[in-house]
Amino acid sequence: MGGWAIAVHGGAGVDPNLPTERQEEAKRLLTHCLNLGISAVRSNLSAIDVVELVVRELETDPLFNSGRGSALTEKGTVEMEASIMDGPKRRCGAVSGITTVKNPISLARLVMEKSPHSYLAFAGAEEFARNQGVELVDNDYFITEDNVGMLKLAKEANSILFDYRIPIVGLETCSAGAAATESPLQMNGLPISVYTPETVGCVVVDKEGRCAAATSTGGLMNKMTGRIGDSPLIGAGTYACDLCGVSCTGEGEAIIRGTLAREVGAVMEYKGLGLQEAVDYVVKVRLDEGKAGLIAVSNNGEVACGFNTNGMFRGIASENGFMEVAIWE
User: Fold this and answer.
1) Which residues are part of a known binding site for substrate?
2) What is the distance between the alpha carbons of residues 106 and 328, in angstroms, rounded to a whole number?
3) Does the active-site annotation cover 77?
4) What is the 3-state secondary structure (H, E, C) of the chain?
């Protein structure tokens, strides 16, 4: 075994004009969560315990798009989703359409451990949560003033925010009977100076070489109610096996099409690639025209990240003393 390793992310695709204070705020949260995970794994917690612990912390802080601070649906409500996977036996649990559960990642783990299923959604997931006695809150708890403002802008732009911090130069817009024209707006119609957060995730390999992964999100700003993204989909947004653990972030529809998280393990297994090679291959080859990023660990203590956006909120650390918290390339 090569020792423990951990990585955490807060989303791929970053506004290049993101104010310095926002950057520092994000780095502080990532550093805090990374240190929380390092302390836990050093205390001999299993990988699955550590990823849940770290993602719970990210869900509790409103900075990123999970738990409190989640993006809002077209109706101004929050519908969250999360998944978790334990590598050794490929056990997994996932939830979608969560509206009252304070920590969706813990409900996903309960689905894995306390139900005969792998995935519960909407009313059924909420009923399961009540039966399990998890902490519940009003939907208003998850809604922040910033995101109310983001939803207003999205509606004014008549847009769903797919990867809503990635600028698209020369975005083409069409109207009935009119030719396409160039627009200075982002893909989602928001000014470049607007900051909005993204999906969170954590991957860990513990001292025993066990890998685990967890991902949690509020989804897209101004999304249709009932929309499900990549984050709760095992093999797309989250995957863990004997070889590795992976958590993805970015344009969910592209991640789903590329089954991105599973592909990392697949090319390691079938092509014999190392972890960073596998991550680089998947980001370059499997995303087509999509924009996304991912973090990954391997069972021999490697840790890696990759993205084809201009930045990704991330922190990584390993037993050999390496530690980095970064945003840009």
Assistant:
1) 227-230, 249-252
2) 30
3) no
4) CCCCEEEEEEEECCCCCCCHHHHHHHHHHHHHHHHHHHHHHHCCCCHHHHHHHHHHHHHHCCCCCCCCCCCCECCCCCCEEEEEEECCCCEEEEEEEECCECCHHHHHHHHHHHCCCCEEEHHHHHHHHHHHCCCECCHHHHCCHHHHHHHHHHHHCCCCECCCCCCCCCEEEEECCEEEEEECCCCCCCCCCCCCCCCEEEEEECCCCCEEEEEEECCCECECCCCCCCCCCECCCEEECCCEEEEEEECHHHHHHHCHHHHHHHHHHHHCCCHHHHHHHHHHHCCCCCCEEEEEEECCCCEEEEECCCEEEEEEEECCCCEEEEEEC
Q: Which of 73, 99, 196, 199 is catalytic?
A: 199
Q: What is the pLDDT of residue 160?
A: 55
Q: 247-293: per-residue pLDDT in tens?
A: 999 989 999 999 999 999 999 999 999 999 999 999 999 998 889 99
* 79-129 tens-digit pLDDT: 999 999 999 999 999 999 999 999 999 999 999 999 999 999 999 999 999
Cβ-based neighbours of 82, under 8 Å, separated by 6 or more: 55, 66, 94, 95, 98, 104, 105, 107, 108, 214, 215, 216, 217, 231, 232
> What tokens were used for 50?
């550590």
Among 47, 120, 53, 119, CA closest to 89: 47
Rounded to two decimals, the pTM is 0.90
Residues comprising the binding site? Answer: 227-230, 249-252
In angstroms, the CA 55 to CA 72 distance is 20
